[in-house]
User: Fold this.
Amino acid sequence: RKEVEQDPGPFNVPEGATVAFNCTYSNSASQSFFWYRQDCRKEPKLLMSVYSSGNEDGRFTAQLNRASQYISLLIRDSKLSDSATYLCVVNQFSGGYNKLIFGAGTRLAVHP
Amino acid sequence: NAGVTQTPKFQVLKTGQSMTLQCAQDMNHNSMYWYRQDPGMGLRLIYYSASEGTTDKGEVPNGYNVSRLNKREFSLRLESAAPSQTSVYFCASSERGLGNTEAFFGQGTRLTVV
Assistant:
């Protein structure tokens, strides 16, 4: 079983739609959580961190449920520019250093 | 700011050839990583280095070696390339401390082994 699992997608949505991505992780010792965005043939870049209290950045809302080991990303009012692959990432901190584990990613295609 | 710089950007190798992928970061980060990304597989960790002088195996280390030459540089070597190593390779770096772990990536190396 993969340590971080995501909906495989692709999600094809019209502009203005709301779309939600889900992610689960298997290691309960995971200590911090992130969503990264990756454009086609580009490197991944941090979209936002995810906190237990939930956090919002404009049209993007991330939620973490530690009990269920579940992370979500909600995108409201989708734009064409949101088309990308979204990667769920967990950080395991042990032995004094970080190890980042990536999910396989969920592809989003927003169409006019 | 350069951030994380990888070279080369593209490479074609014949089976059995060797090569070294270079990575350097200018952000004074302690942790550095090498990932490979294959279609439908996401990023898989090959090796990581928590600090200068230390390296550890990740999920898919077979066929690779690494060197953390100094705090800035972390190289990945393929001693005898195989077609299964055709992939996109990303180097990344991050701060060591908990809660400050945004990873910064290089632009990737697209490697084809024929």
